[in-house]
Amino acid sequence: MALAQSVSAHYTFQQLSVGSTKYPVFQYIRQNLNYNYPVTGTGSIFLPRKNLVY
Fold first, then answer.
1. What is the three-class DSSP state of 18?
2. Residue 23, Cα to own-chain centre: how many angstroms?
3. Exposure pattern of 32-51 as b/e (b: 16+ CB <10 Å)?
4. CB 24, CB 15: distance < 8 Å
């Protein structure tokens, strides 16, 4: 029996640059305070909820 594994990753951008213009941190990007901490063990019953930011 083969088991399928999946991987998911994300990155939170802090600064926008367009061409040679570099904008200040979080000027045109909404700051996200939803930190998804890494799961360090599968024996724990605590799993952080995923909240999507649009």
1. strand
2. 21
3. eeeeeeeeeeeeeeeeeeee
4. yes
d(CA 15, CA 12): 10
Instruction: Give me 40's structure tokens.
Output: 């360090």
pTM of the model: 0.41
Dump pLDDT digits (tens) for 1-52.
566 677 666 677 888 899 999 999 888 888 877 666 665 666 655 555 555 4
Rounded distance between C-alpha atoms, residue 9 and residue 31, angstroms: 18
Asked if residues 34 and 53 have their Cβ atoms less than 8 Å apart, the reply is: yes
Domains in the chain: boundaries: 21-54
Rounded distance between C-alpha atoms, residue 42 and residue 27, angstroms = 38
